[in-house]
Amino acid sequence: MEQKMEVRQSLTGAALVCKALCAEGVRQVFGYPGGQVIDLFDALADTPALELILPRHEQGMVHMADGYARTTGKVGVCIATSGPGATNLTTGVATAYADSIPLVCIAGQVPTALLERRSFQEVDVAAVMRSICKQVFCVRRREELARTVQEAFRVAREGKPGPVVIELPKDIQQALGEDCYPPGASAGVTVPALDERRLEAVAERLRLARKPVILAGGGVHLGRAEAELEAFAIRAGIPVVTTLMGMGSLPTAHPLWVGNLGIHGSVAANRAVSECDVLLAIGARFNDRITGRPGTFAPEAYLIHVELDASAISRNIAAGLALVADAKAVLRALLQRQPEGNYTEWRAQIDGWKQAYPLAMGEGFTPECILRAVGKAFPGALFVADVGQNQLWAGQFLELARGQRLLLSGGLGTMGYGLPAAIGAKLAAPERPVVCITGDGGLQMNLQELTTAAALELPLLICVLQNTVLGNVRQWQKMFYGGRYSGTCLRGRRSCAGRCGQVECPPYLPDLVRLAESCGVAGFRATQDTELLPALRQARQAKGPVLLECCVSPEWDVLPIVPPGAALDEMRLE
Questions:
Q1: Are 429 and 380 in contact (CB under 8 A)?
Q2: What is d(CA 131, CA 194) in angstroms, rounded to the nearest whole number?
Q3: pLDDT tens digit sequence for 394-413
Q4: 422 DSSP 8-state letter
């Protein structure tokens, strides 16, 4: 007589979630407690294999998980309670979705019996999240829980990665049920098969090209295809331009790297794309930040688009030939097909543009001076940029060697991303230096996470380019709105209204050095280059986080710039 397998009803739903996280290879969980996830946190206390990272705000928490995921390539995990806890996740989830970062975000929910009754801290999580993540999973039965968690991890990883959200009611966390978690089916990632005929067509187009360019986007980093990109570029002899998200996929000192493309790209990169005859784009979405005026982008080029997300193909720029495929696999395949190219004249023309139009800000205590000094003081560092002028200057002046990255919010442009994402990156790579480049505006959006960095005792440099204004918007107001500065001064008082320029500017608030020190973070201020190097020496030796406030003029602009509605080759240099 066949013996039936006994099913044990021994685990609460919360305990099963912890077991599932361990099975999925999770080691650190970013979580903020609340009434509807208290059972999950109780189970975490009984799971020593999972380290709980406590932020000071749920938005900062998601950015930490995001920075962790970008650094490791693994799925970042965060947990928040229902209601405001869940809604506080939205900016971080949308940030990860815009940049295809794999996250599993677990949001608590009121018990199922109280759903749709306007219960305390009840929010329709699915309705809120549906448009800003890959998928929302609403668990309604304890029997569904294991498969739901497994499916969530699979969706987060598979194809074009991205964030998913699990809504988990309190009663399901408490309910007893099976202790079985299905074995590793979610660990595998399905990669589309390569189309051999299209690969051969790509290789043939490149063989016939006279002025080819490779455009490397963030998908090269997502696919961990940096080594393949470099090997292919060298073999083919083709110059490489990068998007800001793709920066570092080829070392910035490499002779084949031209520069970053786009409205604040280099003259050489923008001209190379504008004059190339074949453009091989790998892992780039062609958003408006890199294309300039519609219809003028790469007007002479035959576009070959390699992208995992089929919906991105020809969405903004029509592709002559497309491969919905993994960047690493395509580059490996092309490496076997592509002979050594001879584009000496084309590369010499590009090198001439680089020499004629270098990225430089001149003498003085400039953002360029600061960023180059920071880069030299922290060799091999992972850099994390916030959003605004600080990010754009980082893209222009940081030197990235092989293996270095610049992590940033590219698609959504989220101010406040830098500091918490840097915390996540440092947790992911404790052996490496991590430097956060931020502005005083962006820092203040999530400055409470200074306390988190101190509590975690992380040796982390937070370099603040403090210019007392919201610099990127102010620059646009100066250049395109007649110098009408509205809402961009961070020094202003109510009593200043209507009298700007007629009264002495009040002291800047807050005092960032004293604020940092009150949070347990060492603080230094530099107003000139003679103060910068000693502060960097102390930061290198610190055992915990350091905030370095670098006071620069609000008049420094990010140049070159492509004006609104202009083509990439119509840059303003001053």
A1: no
A2: 30
A3: 999 999 999 999 999 999 99
A4: H
- Predicted confidence (pLDDT) at residue 174 exceeds the cutoff of 50: yes
Q: Please answer whether residues 461 and 539 qualify as being in contact, where contact means their C-beta atoms are separated by less than 8 angstroms.
A: yes
- Tell me which residue of 142, 68, 56 sits closest to 105, measured CA to CA: 68
Give the residue from 412, 418, 363 showing the smallest Cα distance to 390: 418
Q: How many CA atoms lie within 13 A of 84 on its CB side?
A: 5
Which residue, chain included where needed, has tokens 């700007």? 500
Res 189 pLDDT > 60: no
Whether the per-residue pLDDT at 4 is higher than 50: the answer is no
**Is pTM, for the whole model, over 0.85?**
yes
* Residues sharing a CB contact under 8 Å with residue 417, sequence separation 6 or more, in sequence order: 63, 66, 95, 384, 386, 387, 408, 409, 442, 446
- DSSP secondary structure, 83-133, as one string: THHHHTTHHHHHHHHHHT--EEEEEEE--GGGTTTT-TT---HHHHHGGGS
Return the number of other C-beta atoms located less than 10 Å from residue 552's C-beta: 23
Q: Are strands 176-177 and 11-12 parallel, antiparallel or unpaired?
A: antiparallel
Of the candidates 447, 445, 330, 439, the one whose C-alpha atom is nearest the C-alpha of residue 388 is: 439
Q: How confident is the model at residue 431, as a pLDDT?
A: 96
309 vs 44: CA distance, rounded Å:
35
Nearest-angstrom CA–CA distance, 56 and 572: 42
What is residue 5's predicted lDDT score, i.e. its pLDDT?
A: 42
Is it the case that residue 185 has pLDDT exceeding 70?
no
Q: Give long-range contacts, CB 8 A cutoff, 24+ apart: 454-458.
A: 454/519, 454/520, 454/521, 454/544, 454/545, 455/54, 455/520, 456/53, 456/423, 456/427, 457/543, 457/544, 458/423, 458/426, 458/427, 458/434, 458/544, 458/545
- Phi, psi at residue 82, to the nearest 5°? -75, 180
